[in-house]
Amino acid sequence: MINAIFYKEWIKTKWYYAVACLLLIGFASYAGIYLKRVGDLSGMAALWEYYLSKDDSLITIIKYLPLIVGIGGAVFQFAPEMHRKCLKLTLHLPCGYIKSVGAMMLFGTGILVMCSLICFAVLYVFASHILPNEIVSRILLTAIPWFLAGFCAYYLTIWVVVEPVWKKRVFQTILSVFVLKLFIITDTPGAYLPSLWWLVPLAFGAALLPVISLSDFKEGLQD
Amino acid sequence: MKRIAQIYLIIVTAVICLWQLPWIYNFFTVEAYTTPFILYSSVVDDFVVRKTENKKIVCSGLDGTTYTINQYDSILPEYQARQLAAYDCLPDTLFGRAVSLKMLTEEAISMRIKPEMVFGPQIPLYQLMESQSGRVDFEMPDDVFRITDSKIEFVIKDSNKVNEPKSQMFTDALSDAGFVFPAVEIAGNPTSKKRYDNGYLITDSRNCLFNLKMEKGNPNVQKIELDQQIVPCHIFVTEFTGMHSLGMFFDQNGKLYVITMPEKEIKMVDIPPVDLHADEVFIMGNIFTWTIRIKNDDTVSWYAVDAQNFAQIKSYSQPVGYEYVKGLDFEENGWIVPGWR
Amino acid sequence: MENLIECTNLTHYYGKRLIYRDLNFSVPKGRILGLLGKNGTGKTTTINILSGYLKPYSGDCLIFGQPANAINPEVRKKIGLLIEGHVQYQFMNISQIEKFYSAFYPGQWKKEAYYELMNKLKVSPSQKINKMSNGQRSQVALGLILAQNPELLVLDDFSLGLDPGYRRLFVEYLQDYAKSEGKTVFLTSHIIQDMENLVDDCIIMDYGKILVQMSVSELLSGIRLYRCSDAEGDVNGEIDGLYHPEFLRDKLEFCSFKSQQDVEQILHQHNIRYSAIESETINLEDAFIGLTGKY
Question: What is the pLDDT of residue C176?
């Protein structure tokens, strides 16, 4: 049954996720190539000194991309379900509504995880070739909250899209903006290291929120 | 499941409110506060305040005595030497000691220590400069070093490869000087914009303090003798133009010490313990006295100390002149750490 | 006879607007029940409550003995649901949607029933649903329900948006399937003429209440359309036993389940004078209009 839901999600979103993955990998590659070019043009010593003296990771070009991909993923997956209340069909499937919607979210999460890992691998390959481990890990650590923001944005957007009551949607949107702001307070490399312990549950805990919207949908709440 | 989701939502909403509502309130209500610029004047034996009111510079003593700008220059000759010299008003002697403009400007020191400089995110790679290059201008080294659990490693910037012979040479030099790996604190000023190089001050795993320099490509490691009860926790290499000090450090109790040059003697500065997590330290000094300002969210204090023996001469405190509503905040010393601030 | 649907004392409001109060009905196994009513009388509300997408203000609704909002997956397999407007996943094509649903109904899925209907549409298996007409979409939705082979079919306004040909096709297929397989059906439609040959029982709803709840044969044999010639009198306000009496020039028309003798007595009691009275049997659509009124 879960495979069937994955199949449905694949039909619905394959083009979106293909483009989103290419974008993410493309931008990560660009960031990696950019580091290499800065090193080639200014000298590796200048690049190293830049990292040791400035609070800059030089990869901020990808900062908002995971967030946008997460929001887009949720919209492409769940907006068609809300069109003419198509979600009723999904909730009517004989596997329990938590399981069916959970499988849909698992599909999106899986693709986002895959995209994120590829991005990190691309960045690692480019950076580790020219920079020492201490700087490479600082660069990757800087990108972790941005990718966590992508996951959180994905779940929060589902929460908002599935909610049938507009007044609640407004509240949810405002709250979501502030929650996402928590992931992008600073660009200082490695600044989020002591906060990963609560950022990870904050990001993935947001996956619980669509249950509230689904409950409102099932109870037929409306403005 | 819905109940767990609701608990999550309540917690997140509460966190966002505790974070953003005080911030919004403070944004609209808190008024600007400028810390007054205060220096100790040996001439009047008191602190002298300089501030701007209605776009005019106003100078006064703590007792309310007002000074004109010329009077201000003359009661702080060691700080205002250039101004006095320009109008040929700089005395030949100050407090019984012969002085010159060159001497006073070279001996002037200024140093600011902010919590984020001490506790902020830093990449544990360091650049050891050549102390005796034979050139006036410094050049940045072509490698960086790291100290692992068992050795010091130099990594060449261009190739991203470890320079094994150099690493071995410096590891041996450190070990021969009694350094026990790994290092606990590593401090230096890797910049080409300085007059001379004092290398690095490093504490080892037993909290012993060492001075590491590179002279003509070779290691020069010297152990600095410390009282056993003193544990250097936050170390700073000074490299002041006057060359009277190698560095400073705060010990485990927040007491400030100066490592003098050339004898490398440890002298305690007679000021109260400093909490570098919260306190910002600003030092302005000359050959006679230092004025040390310690500022945190609640209070700002000034201490005048003797520049030779660091005994306290005078102190003054005042509350920080603005109030704000505390709330949940996530930024601390450059890190993202939740806290009630 | 076992009831597959049992609703007791259902009451629902949208805000402060009462939709109905204390609605009671049941659908026995093997019967086809049609819920008839004008727009806004609560047909879709009832379907939503039955399919678990609306929590009623009060009352209980049991399907296969389970509360409608907490039906377990095994029981859900026995329920075929047609959403108003024949809504289906628009992004899928004919073969994809069949492949998708078949995974949820192992052992009961009748692929051939679906493709038999699809072959009649003469569309390619790769035809996307969002590129189809309303009529074609209705056949896809019906085909999927037939393939699911459920014991209970819940169909919300199946005639919405269909032209007469597709409506007829839908009704004929459904009728044949339900009767031959002994299926239980609960449906709503705003086109009453389709229902006459399809449903066994009907509930006719007015705003806030049930007007009639009986078998269609009972309804059509019991109800009469009465016409009085040269009639005079005041028919404003309700007259017990007579449904929506209305003057057309000097003729008075109304429906009633009462005999002509009883009707004449009622008219006499209300000082309504006439020269002659005649009655006739009527079809379901006329009965519906007679019972609910034209306005």
Answer: 86
Contact across the interface for B1 and A129, Cβ inside 8 Å: no
Q: How far is A156 from chain C (nearest CA, A)?
A: 23
Span B197-249, pLDDT tens digits: 999 999 999 999 999 999 999 999 999 999 889 999 999 999 888 888 999 99
Of A45, A55, A41, whose CA–CA distance to B141 is shortest? A45
Q: List CB contacts (< 8 A) between B338 and chain A.
A: 195, 198
Quickly state the pLDDT bin for C1 (edges 50, 70, 90): low
Beta partners for residue B107, in sequence order: none
pTM of the model: 0.89
Nearest residue in A to C44, CA atom: A220
Burial class (CB in 10 A: 0-12, 13-18, 19+), B313: middle
Q: What is the domain count for chain A?
A: 1
Closest Cβ–Cβ partner in C53, C55, C79 for A88: C53
Architecture of domain C223-292: 2-Layer Sandwich (3.30)
For residue C237, pLDDT beyond 70: no
Residue A92 domain-assigned (yes or no): yes
- Nearest by CB to residue B5, choosing from A135, A138, A212, is A212
CB distance A214 to A112 below 8 Å: no
Q: Where in chain C is the domain with CATH 3.40.50.300?
A: 3-218
Q: What is the DSSP letter of C276?
A: E
Is the pLDDT confidence value at A26 over 90?
yes
Containing H/E element for A149?
helix A133-162
Q: Is the pLDDT of residue C235 over 80?
A: no
Q: Structural domain of residue A191, as residue ranges?
A: 2-218
| Optimal mutation site among A3, A84, A214, interface C, most CBs of chain C within 10 A | A84
- The CATH H-level (homologous superfamily) assignment of domain C3-218 is P-loop containing nucleotide triphosphate hydrolases (3.40.50.300)
Give the mutation candidate from B123, B140, B167, B331 for the A interface (greatest A CB count, under 10 A). B123
Q: Does A8 contact C92 at a Cβ distance shorter than 8 Å?
A: yes
> Would you call A10 an interface residue with chain C, using a CB distance cutoff of 8 Å?
no
Whether A223 is covered by a domain: the verdict is no
In contact, A160 and A82? CB cutoff 8 Å: no
Local confidence band at A199 (pLDDT 50, 70, 90 cut-offs): very high
Which of A18, A3, A12 lies closest to A81 in space, CA to CA? A12
Q: Residues 89 to 108 of A: which have CB under 8 A from any C CB?
A: 89, 91-96
- For residue B97, what pLDDT is reported? 86
Q: Exposure pattern of B101-127 as b/e (b: 16+ CB <10 Å)?
A: eebbeebbbeeebbbbbbbbbbbebbb
| Contact status, residue B269 vs residue B260, Cβ threshold 8 Å | no
Instruction: Give the distance from residue A170's alpha carbon to the nearest chain C alpha carbon, in angstroms.
Output: 20
| Mean pLDDT (whole number) for A171-185 | 96
Calpha distance A140→A127 (Å, rounded): 9
In this prediction, residue B257 has a pLDDT band, given cuts at 50, 70 and 90, of: very high
Interface of A with B (CB under 8 A): 43-45, 48-49, 51-52, 55, 98, 129-132, 134-135, 138, 145, 175, 178-179, 182, 185-186, 188-195, 198, 202, 205-206, 208-209, 211-212, 215
Parallel, antiparallel or unpaired: strands B97-98 and B93-94? antiparallel
Using a CB-CB cut-off of 8 Å, the residues of chain A touching B188 are none
pLDDT digits (tens, 9 = 90+) for C177-215: 888 888 899 988 878 887 888 889 999 888 878 888 889
- State yes or no: pLDDT of A167 exceeds 90: yes
Does residue A45 lie within any of the structural domains? yes
**Which of A 73-92 lie inside 8 A of C, CB atoms?**
80, 83-86, 88-89, 91-92
Please check whether residue A212 lies inside any domain of the structure: yes
Q: B123 vs A188: CB contact, 8 Å cut-off?
A: no
